[in-house]
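Input record (one chain):
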Amino acid sequence: MIDYEKDPVLIRGTEDIWWVGFGDKKVGFANNPYLIIDEDEAMLIDPGPRGRFYKIVHNKVAKALKGDFEKIKYMAVQHEDPDLCASLPLFAQIVDENVKLYVQTRTAAFMPYFEYEGAMVTIEDGDKMSFKSGRELTFITTPYVHFAGSNVIYDSKTKTLFSSDIFGAFSVDWNLYANEYYLEAMKAFGEPYFGDHRSVASAMEKFEKLDIERICPQHGSIIDGKENVKNAIEVVKEMTVGQWV
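The corresponding structure, as predicted from the sequence alone:
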């Protein structure tokens, strides 16, 4: 039986994408770093904050990699919130010494403030990276949803969209996979958090061109299945954003 407090979880429908996150039950806020293990290489996406939460993520990553942190050749940060990237310098000390951090140009400017001094690859809309196996990830910029330098990542092998804060939610009754109440929770999170409908519409237009089987947000729950993905996109398109009520 899976212990969500201690165990990494293999995302269903994939053979190599792991959830290595945690649910902060005190505030109803799940943080969801993800680990792609592609043969003898790995990428850690949005590694998370410091403190006790770093220990949780560290231990789950260790289990998924069977202790071999040097498999992590790549890391990615999808925007500059500390809940996504404050632990970067800590992971940088234990992963491959030549690790590359993929980060949008505007976001890259903030990485030194987190004491990250490693190599960075700055990306723009449509840029790609490939593992040695040939597996390809595409970086898609989503400016002002909710930072100027926000981006998401699309894995064409598994048809997975790592969506950063988009499609996130507060979840007091958190589940790893979205339940029947999730879309309403997603609205409650997104409507006051996203500033302008034009930016949101632009991002949704990009997503509708992709073949997506699951959405893995950085907060909240995973949205699994093409019909559920389609419904989630429609909900976001209809949000009344930029209002704090």
